[in-house]
Each structure stands twice: as C-alpha cells, then as structure tokens.
C-alpha cells in the first residue's frame, strides 16, 4: 500500500476538489496496487466525520517505534503470515484516526527520552537531559527550572477535572514512562 500512498493522496485531493473526471481513462486501473490504494481511499471517503467530544484520550507510546521500525514490523508480520509484507497493514494502522509526532530534541540528532516526552506531552521541543522545560532552558539552571516550564497534556486534563494515569509494560522508572510522568509531575509540582 505504501506505493499507492502518494497516488492515494492525489486521488483524495481530486475527489474532494471536484477535479475528478468521471470519464478519465486510467490505464493502470486493473493494477492490484492501484486497486488496493483506491479501495483504501474509498474507505476513507466513506468515514463519517466524528465531531463528538472525546470522553477519553489515550496516548500510546511505542518506545523506539520510528517509521523504519514500524516498516520492518509490518514486513515481518506479513511475511510470517505468508502475505506480501510490504503491503501488509498492522492492526493499529487500520484505526480510523492516527497521528505521528516528531519527538526529536532541539539540540541533538539523537534525542533522549526527556525531550521525547516533552514533545509528546507538551507539544514543544526541548534539549537533551531536560524534562518539562522549553528549548531555551539551560542545563543545571535553577532559574530556568522555574521560568521555562511547559504545560503538559496531563496538567491540562486535570485542570478540566479529568483523571490521568499511566499504564506501562516497562517499570515505571524506565526512561519513557518516567519521562512522561516526570514532565507531568515537574510542571504540576514545580520541579
């Protein structure tokens, strides 16, 4: 399906902007990859927009699951089932609404868990080794601990009277769950 992704985007654009010509001859219409991309597009176009207010929000964090790792998992899982791994779709990739987050740090090519957690829970970048602060914070600065704090999803949710929590398959003090919780706790408790 990846090969049809950009074509699918173009088809989606044409279908939603009335640039679509019913009588246009599409030579590749019988190609199985084209058909698969078109079927996916038709499914997406039939989705009814969900305008309800969310009752719950769940942030799934697959630690280390960048695009290359997900692609490898998709191929492997498909091959294990005896199908075309490259065209395989993992279960969660079929969710109707998905998003990706760029969790890099603002000062290094290889980010650690702290700025990843800040990116996921506060929507901003920060530097490596800093938790719950914005990208202008300096390491070991007590002043920045007080003046460069960011507001996390957890803090926003609790301000609205919602409950928050964490479920993890790793120990709670492991890098990623700790990072998410520390970003929350630091902003909530002031350090």
From TrEMBL:
Top-level taxon in the UniProt lineage: Bacteria
Signal sequence, renumbered to the chain: 1-21
The UniProt record lists the keyword Hydrolase: yes
A Pfam family matched in the record: Alk_phosphatase
Gene Ontology MF annotations: alkaline phosphatase activity
EC annotation from Swiss-Prot or TrEMBL: 3.1.3.1
Class of enzymatic activity (EC top level): hydrolase
Keyword Metal-binding: no
Entry-linked InterPro entries: Alkaline_phosphatase, Alkaline_phosphatase_core_sf
Sorted UniProt keywords: Hydrolase, Phosphoprotein, Signal
Database matches in PANTHER family: ALKALINE PHOSPHATASE
Annotated family: Belongs to the alkaline phosphatase family.
Name the record gives this protein: Alkaline phosphatase
Originating species: Labrys neptuniae
Upper lineage: Bacteria, Pseudomonadati, Pseudomonadota, Alphaproteobacteria, Hyphomicrobiales
């Amino acid at each position: 399906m990846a090969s049809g992704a950009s074509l699918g985007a173009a088809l989606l654009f044409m279908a939603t902007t009335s640039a679509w010509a019913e009588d246009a001859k599409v030579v590749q219409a019988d190609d199985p990859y084209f058909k698969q991309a078109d079927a996916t597009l038709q499914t997406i176009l039939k989705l009814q927009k969900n305008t309800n207010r969310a009752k719950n929000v769940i942030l799934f964090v697959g630690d280390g699951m960048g695009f290359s790792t997900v692609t490898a998992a998709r191929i492997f899982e498909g091959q294990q089932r005896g199908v075309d791994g490259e065209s395989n779709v993992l279960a969660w990739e079929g969710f109707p609404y998905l998003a990706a987050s760029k969790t890099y740090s603002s000062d290094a090519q290889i980010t650690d868990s702290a700025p990843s957690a800040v990116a996921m829970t506060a929507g901003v970048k920060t530097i490596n080794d800093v938790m719950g602060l914005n990208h202008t914070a300096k390491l070991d600065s007590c002043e920045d601990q007080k003046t460069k704090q960011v507001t996390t999803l957890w803090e926003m949710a609790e301000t609205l009277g919602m409950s928050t929590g964490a479920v993890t398959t790793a120990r709670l003090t492991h890098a990623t769950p700790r990072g998410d919780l520390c970003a929350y706790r630091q902003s909530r408790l002031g350090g």
